[in-house]
Amino acid sequence: MSSTAKRKRATNPDPPPVPLQLEGPDFFSLVPDCLVISILSLLPAHDAARTSVLSSRWRHLWKAASLRLDVPVDEQTVSRIFDSHHGPIESLRLSCFTYATMDHFLKLAVQRGIPELTIVFSFFGPDTYELPPFLLRCNSLHQLSLVCCWFHFPLPLLPSIFPNLTELSLTDVLLNNDLLQILLSKCGSLETLRLISSWASPLISISSPRLRKLVFDWGFIYWNDKVTAELIIKDAPNLESLMLGDRETRDANLYVLDAPKLQLLGFLCMDFKVLQLGGTLLQQQPASDFQINAMPCQMTMLSSVKVLAIKMEHSFDKTILDLMRCFPCLENLYILKYGGNRNKNYLDKGIWDEHGFLSFLDHLKTVTVKGFYGNQSDVELVRYLVVYGKVLRKITLLCSKAFSEKFVEAKKRQFCIEKRASSDLELVFFRDTKSNVHFSLWNELMAR
């Protein structure tokens, strides 16, 4: 910049910025307190409390809003919040307090009609925590989550507990089948049960007339090579969703005996030892083949299942069709293939074609394959679905390696896409950079 320009700029400095002039009335100030309180009730506790600095009008509004305290906080912070906040409690998380302090906070929460509660403890305490009777009788509680809790019920046990509890989550909880039976028999309103990383006995039996959703992930912590874990869905007339983790069917026995309304089932690991679905029994043979034994039972198939997710190695592809016979009304199929790119001829076209058209293909609409490598095993599976899937709308292939247009066109020719049974069929290829160990659609399936 020249000296002349510098002198000109010095004599004619830039004008200061003009402050923004807001025109018109302040409509937000006209909003009634009851509506502002409803808005604040949607915020976490620390965010709602910060609004008290806005003006004298806002100073006490958050104290009347529903309290959401979902983040870990220390005992003093919880105490201060309870002392200053006098409104209802929407959700509360209590963790790592002494048992006496925990009882005190729980009593205050129950008095304010707590609907959602999370309790977090450590296994390293000297004693087990006994859930207080006033909590077991709480009518307002609808969702309860227990994390790292080593607890037992007070004796003598109440005739019924948690009268209106609809959702129970147990994570890292010491659990045995007897305790689980008490929970299921005495929680008369329970509809959703989640058992995550729980220290469970090798045998878990589920009998519940109202249960609609069961999530069982890494439930058999005491599982070892000498003991075969067993999960039995014995009596669940209203169960609609059964989501299983990897361990629940890997080298384990799974019995779904009575679940006439089951719509979602997954993930079935094809390394199971025994799998009984209704009146159909599948047993693994030493040669890694599977044998189907029809059992005399009124319900021989799970006709209610619409969504199925399975996890398998490439060598087990031919067992899919045998498994599909159990689900004649299947609409959505998810397959996770793991074990690497094994380019082996485990099967040929004859094995698939000899099955011909199966009844589930009358309803199958979408198929998602994660871990698609494009080897013969993969191609023959997709080709069969393309040629026989009458109402198939979409096949999504999540490829575990980079692919080109040339690769896609070559695979479509191998799929015999020109012979597709459904004119509406869409084939979609995606590059999947995530590990095949975990299925990316797990959360989506659990949300159904």
User: What is the CATH-assigned architecture of the domain at 306-448?
Assistant: Alpha-Beta Horseshoe
Shape: globular
What name does CATH use for the topology of the domain at 306-448?
Leucine-rich repeat, LRR (right-handed beta-alpha superhelix)
How many helical elements? 12
Largest sheet, if any? 14 strands, parallel
| Termini Cα gap | 66 Å
Give the strand order of the largest sheet, numbering strands 1, 2, ... along the chain: 1-2-3-5-7-8-10-12-14-18-19-20-21-22
Structural class: alpha/beta
Helix content: 10-25%
Uncertain parts? 287-299
Please count the beta strands (DSSP E, at least 2 residues each): 22
Mean pLDDT: 75
Which percent band covers the strand fraction? 15-25%
Overall CATH class of the domain at 306-448: Alpha Beta
Q: How many whole angstroms does the radius of gyration measure?
A: 29 Å
Protein name: F-box domain-containing protein
Organism: Rhynchospora tenuis
Pfam family, one: LRR_At5g56370
Describe what is shown at a glance.
The protein is an alpha/beta fold and 448 residues long. The protein is 22% helix and 25% strand.
Task: Walk me through this protein's architecture.
By secondary structure, the protein is an alpha/beta fold. The protein has a domain at 306-448: Alpha-Beta Horseshoe (Leucine-rich repeat, LRR (right-handed beta-alpha superhelix)), CATH 3.80.10. It is built from twelve helices and 22 strands. It has helices at residues 3-11, 33-40, 45-50, 75-84, 99-111, 133-136, 177-186, 319-324, 349-353, 376-388, 405-414, 442-446; strands at residues 67-69, 89-95, 116-120, 129-130, 143-147, 151-152, 167-171, 192-196, 203-207, 213-217, 230-235, 241-244, 253-256, 264-269, 274-277, 280-284, 290-294, 307-313, 332-338, 366-372, 394-399, 426-431. Strands 1-2-3-5-7-8-10-12-14-18-19-20-21-22 form a 14-stranded parallel sheet, with helices on one face. Strands 9-11-13-15-16-17 form a six-stranded mixed sheet. Strands 4-6 form a two-stranded parallel ribbon. Strand 19 (332-338), helix 9 (349-353) and strand 20 form a beta-alpha-beta unit. The termini are far apart. Residues 287-299 have low confidence and may be disordered.
